[in-house]
Write a structure and sequence with these properties.
mainly alpha; two-stranded antiparallel sheet; 48% helix; binds zinc ion
């Protein structure tokens, strides 16, 4: 069951303005996640409330009351303001992009990566395929850039590879996704990740850019590539 606190007045740490925020207090999932870890319902329908946005200055954070050094300088910067007033993305996607921008400027790529993924999901839900692809490419630039320096922006290397292959495939970058699988599958031992990569290879062969669930990879009968 999903529950909210509708009465909460929150004071923005950047500008000092207080305003109402709907706080998500609990949720659950009745179906499994997609290949890129997008959660199933009902949790997916709570995305509007994963972040708070100040109605006055536009600051976005998980908790607007939490002190964050240099946040006000970022909110005042031309880059943040341009994105805040941009009409290029659905409102929900823009909120996640603002959070990702803040995290990247403040040197927190591990926090920026999940926000960029959420922006992708918001575009899938409310935007156009073109907007979703633009967000996927932004996420790819950050995650691939870190990966090349042996920094994994999700919980471990296997998870990062699994998410990267899906981002590449869904952006129709089939050859890049296929090459990444060929490079990484032989050195990844986790059975689930190997199953996911095997299923991705099948989807790439079909030039499929669609959304698929992790449960489909479990049901897929192909043989994973051998680990060394
Ligand atoms: Zn504010």
């Amino acid at each position: 069951m999903t529950t909210y606190n509708h009465e909460k007045s929150v004071r923005c740490v950047v500008c000092g303005t207080s305003g109402p925020q709907i706080i998500l207090t609990s949720s659950n999932t009745l179906e499994g996640p997609d290949l890129d870890t997008r959660p199933g319902e009902m949790l997916r329908s709570t995305m509007e409330h994963w972040l708070q946005q100040c109605h006055s200055c536009g600051y976005v954070a998980e908790d607007l009351t939490e002190e964050r050094p240099d946040a006000s300088a970022v909110v005042s910067s031309p880059g943040y303001k341009t994105l805040l007033h941009s009409t290029n993305y659905p409102d929900l996607a823009r909120k996640f992009l603002l959070k990702a921008h803040m995290d990247q400027v403040l040197g927190a790529p591990h926090d920026a990566a999940p926000s960029l993924l959420s922006a992708v999901w918001a575009c899938d839900e409310y935007g156009s395929p073109t907007q979703a692809t633009a967000c996927r490419k932004q996420a790819l630039a950050l995650i691939q850039g870190a990966f090349e320096h042996n920094s994994f922006l999700f919980e471990d290397k296997g998870t990062t590879v699994a998410i990267l292959t899906d981002l590449l495939r869904r952006a129709a970058l089939f050859e890049q996704s296929d090459t990444l699988i060929d490079d990484q599958a032989p050195i990844i031992a986790e059975p689930l990740i190997r199953k996911l990569l095997c299923f991705q290879k099948y989807l790439i062969g079909r030039r499929d850019v669609g959304m698929h669930k992790i449960s489909e990879a479990h049901a897929f009968g192909g043989d994973p590539p051998e680990a060394n």
